[in-house]
Amino acid sequence: MSKPKPTPADAKVESIEPLKDEDARWTKLVKITYRDPTGQRRTWESAERSTRPPNSAIDGVGIVAILQKPTGPEILLQKQFRPPTDKVCIEVPAGLIDAGETPEECAVRELREETGYVGVAQKVERRGGMGVMFNDPGFTNTNLCMIHVSIDTSLAENQSENLKPELEENEFIEVFSVPLKELWSECQRLEGEGFAIDARVGTLAEGVELARRWGL
User: Fold this and answer.
1) Do the bridges between strand 87-91 and strand 74-82 make them parallel or antiparallel, or are there none, so unpaired?
2) Which residue, 83, 87, 92, 165, has most beta carbons within 10 Å?
């Protein structure tokens, strides 16, 4: 009998302990000294990624990948175990930017590597900037751009039998899609089943629901 394929739900946290600076590969803690609006000097503890390429304004991208289907648009989501939450998280595809990449190039590459889908980054008008978003600005300077990617499901390379994700050895990702108009209710259902909802997915769902309620 063949061994069952590992799934994100098979993972679990075994222990938590302090991390020494010299052992940290991906992050670092820093102390920031600043002056508040009254001129008083204060300090702030912050976490930073160690992976941002030189001359890059962002750490990575989040990908709003839309499957074009005859029944209507569907958003591509992922299930992935995240040790800090000790839960399987519902996320959009995402990844860190490489040196010399544009956010759009990064999004198309990460989408192909994590899901196997071949998409086209959509040009979105961004007045006054790149559309940089900060994940948790009271805790970290980590940031990203949300890139819209369209996936043509009529293409041969995007048929389910032809999808070939290129996951890292330590990546275990399940890919699924949800009708965009049902994203809010689906997030509620998944959270009720014990999944953690990534803030990017939750914010998109909130936007869909607000648009529905207010007729936007």
Assistant:
1) antiparallel
2) 92
DSSP code, position 156: G
Angle at 110 between CA 113 and CA 59, to 5 degrees: 145
Token pair for 25: 């590969």
Coil, strand or helix at 209: helix
Position of tokens 């890919």?
175
Q: What is the pLDDT of residues 114-150, one digit of tens each?
A: 999 999 998 776 666 678 999 999 999 999 999 999 9
- Residues near 213 by beta carbon (within 8 Å), at least 6 away in sequence: none
d(CA 29, CA 20): 10
Query: Which residues have a Cβ under 8 Å from the Cβ of 39 and sit 6 or more positions away?
Result: none
Predicted TM-score (pTM) of the model is 0.94
Q: What is the DSSP letter of 92?
A: -
Q: Which DSSP symbol is given to 30?
A: E
Which positions ≥6 away from 56 have C-beta within 8 Å?
Answer: 97, 99
Range list of H helices, 89-198: 103-115, 183-192
Collect the ranges in the chain with pLDDT lower than 70.
Answer: 1, 125-129
